[in-house]
From TrEMBL:
SUPFAM superfamilies hit by this protein: P-loop containing nucleoside triphosphate hydrolases (SSF52540)
Residues that coordinate or bind ATP: G13, V14, G15, K16, T17, T18, R121
Pfam families registered for this protein in UniProt: SKI
GO biological process: amino acid biosynthetic process; aromatic amino acid family biosynthetic process; chorismate biosynthetic process
Residues annotated for Mg(2+) binding in this entry: T17
Claim: Cell membrane is one of the keywords in the record: no
InterPro entries linked to this entry: P-loop_NTPase, Shikimate/glucono_kinase, Shikimate_kinase/TSH1
HAMAP family (alphabetical): Shikimate_kinase
Similarity comment: Belongs to the shikimate kinase family.
Stated name of the protein: Shikimate kinase
Protein localization: Cytoplasm
Binding site for substrate: D35, R59, G82, R139
Organism field: Alteribacillus iranensis
Length: 169
């Protein structure tokens, strides 16, 4: 395996953080959740940034910090915010500098998790179910521009980790 960062992408709640931590253990690499990195670097929570400055301002901050970590760090496991990959500049930096793993999930399986996901995820609190499903569907084709695509339906985080290890071997 090379020294590239591994970048996990996919919709909110698909398991990027959970699987990212397991992968980091297996590979003896550091795990960085980019939502938490953004909060640390700005000194504010993501809900606070959304509330005070709005989504457009959040996306600019997200772009600057995510691209910096993609380009200027090595050997990390980076879990991207659920919407980060929709930004073309972030996508280009990830595909050029990193190995990108898309964690996919069906809408039906995702719905089963939705209630537990609402806390701390402002987009899920603001939007109707119909709007969330539209967002879910609209992002799918963009996430497919990746290095490895893993469907996680009825698969435990440990099994997902194993599938990723096999794909990269
Ligand atoms: N493969 C899985 N099977 C069942 N539950 C899972 C799986 N992966 C994650 N979960 C559960 O789903 C919830 C969301 O997982 P996690 O926080 O890892 O998602 P995420 O992709 O990092 O979300 P976000 O984009 O909002 O940061 C957690 O409660 C986690 O335990
Ligand atoms: O899917 C999204 O657009 C988001 C997902 C979260 O990870 C956070 O980055 C933020 O709440 C926006
Ligand atoms: Mg996460």
């Amino acid at each position: 395996m090379d020294d590239n960062n591994l970048v996990l992408i996919g919709f909110m709640g698909v398991g990027k953080t959970t699987v990212g931590e397991l992968l980091a253990d297996r590979l003896q690499r550091e795990f960085l959740d980019m939502d938490r990195v953004i909060e640390k670097e700005t000194g504010r929570t993501i809900p606070d940034i959304f509330a005070a400055e709005g989504e457009v301002a959040f996306r600019e901050i997200e772009k600057r910090i995510t691209i910096d970590y993609c380009r200027n760090t090595k050997k990390n496991i980076l879990s991207l915010g659920g919407g980060a990959y929709m930004q073309p500049e972030i996508r280009e930096a990830c595909l050029k500098e990193c190995t990108v793993i898309f964690l996919d999930i069906s809408w039906e399986q995702w719905l089963e998790r939705m209630e537990e996901l609402k806390e701390g995820r402002p987009l899920l609190q603001e939007k109707s179910l119909e709007e969330i499903q539209k967002l879910f569907d609209s992002r799918h084709d963009t996430y497919r521009h990746c290095t490895h695509h893993v469907l996680t339906d009825r698969t435990t985080p440990e099994e997902v980790t194993e599938i990723i290890m096999e794909k990269m071997s």
